[in-house]
Amino acid sequence: MKRWILVLLAAALPLVFSATLWAKGTGESGSGKIKATLITMDSIDEHWLKVRAGAQAKADELGNVELTFNAPPGKVDAAVQLQMVEDAITKKSDIILLAPLNKDALSPGVEKAKKAGIKVVIIDSAISTPDYDAFFSTDNGAAARTAADTLAGLIGRTGKVAIVNAQAGAGTTMTRENDFKDQIAKKYPGITVVGTQYSDGDKTKALNIALDFLTANPDLAGFYACNEGSTVGVGNAVDQRGAAGKVKVVGFDWSDDTKSLVERDILQATMVQNPYEMGYQGVQAGVDVYNGKTISPKDIDTGVTVATKANAASIK
């Protein structure tokens, strides 16, 4: 009897070993594919839709990646996004690609994912913890300083300007705000920043904020807007007041709406990122790390272009 048990065990061991290798080499999905979860700040802003499109294109190109997309309904609650990270951990994702709403609030989720053996790629916005595998983003500090120089040139280096940001606390937008302010303070003593308000990236909210700024400051020379939704809202407010050309606007991101504003001379310049590449390269990096490679350096700048009416036709 004991001998038969030993024979059965000996026969079973190769099967167990083979199954272990299969699971390690093909992810946890049961479909033979690597499970990747992309979590962005919202699912409405065109910027994030481009990130998603790039990620999906790379997943389709590779053929062995099962990509799941998730995002909060709006850029207002980091706790909801953190729960999405927790869900991805519970569902045993092999790779998490995350654009964190708040660099501090999302750090525990990232650290928990890494402890669970999940590869983590950060997209667009910084995270407080260094415990991630790769980070694809615009150099937002450099872009913000360029935005400051651009707006300063448009208003003759003097006058009042207002800032309409997206959400307070997000690494990306706070860098865009703070580096803009620092550049203005350092280089342009004739310019006064009259205030900053947060629109959560909502175009209607940004429009109303901008209208309030215009009412309170009838001599306002310019606006700086820190993301696509804020840029569109500000542009629409300036247009609504009949102040196009008189009040200069410099914004962020490229969409059908921002392109239209540029072509109509309402938006004089906008800092264009490359969100498609963030998603595309992010998935590739996640798969590379999953397969044992190391990304070095792990912080990658995907570039920025200053879009104006002169070059609008060439920007995608």
How would the blueprint of this fold be written?
Layout: H1 2-26, E1 34-39, H2 46-62, E2 65-70, H3 78-90, E3 95-98, H4 107-115, E4 119-123, E5 134-137, H5 140-154, E6 159-165, H6 171-187, E7 191-198, H7 203-216, E8 220-225, H8 228-240, E9 248-252, H9 256-263, E10 269-272, H10 275-290, E11 299-301, E12 305-307
Helix pairs in contact: 2-10, 3-4, 5-6, 7-8
Question: What can be said about this structure in brief?
Answer:
The protein has 316 residues and is of the alpha/beta class. It has helices at 2-26, 46-62, 78-90, 107-115, 140-154, 171-187, 203-216, 228-240, 256-263, 275-290; strands at 34-39, 65-70, 95-98, 119-123, 134-137, 159-165, 191-198, 220-225, 248-252, 269-272, 299-301, 305-307. It starts with a helix and ends in a 9-residue tail after the last strand.
Order of helices and strands: HEHEHEHEEHEHEHEHEHEHEE
Q: What do the pLDDT scores average to?
A: 89
Assign a percent range to the helix content: 40-55%
Largest sheet: 6 strands, parallel
**Taking Cα atoms only, what radius of gyration do you get, to the nearest Å?**
23 Å
Helix segment count? 10
N-to-C span: 73 Å
